[in-house]
What we know:
The chain is an all-alpha fold. It has helices at about 20-50, 50-60, 65-75, 80-90. The relative contact order is 0.11.
Amino acid sequence: MTKKSDHLEVVDSTDLTDADWAEINKLKKAYDAGGATALSAALDALRERDPIQTVRVLGAFFPDLVRETAKDTLAEQGITKEDLLELIQKFQNPNQSKH
């Protein structure tokens, strides 16, 4: 018999930390033990503890969905790709001011 978590697989492991892998394993165990309801509860708990890690972990399972959702959400807020690039540059060079 196939384990439930076989259907919950990491698609993109890029930049995952050891802590992310620990959470991924917790989510798989929750899904194996209690199905979608237990998985949802485990994701809610992770989201409350660490929203950023939640996005990384969900991105490992569903990279295209997370990427498209982020793009759509930013677009709804009127944030363009250029705005994001400017913001990234600003955070990478915080001591450099614009003239």
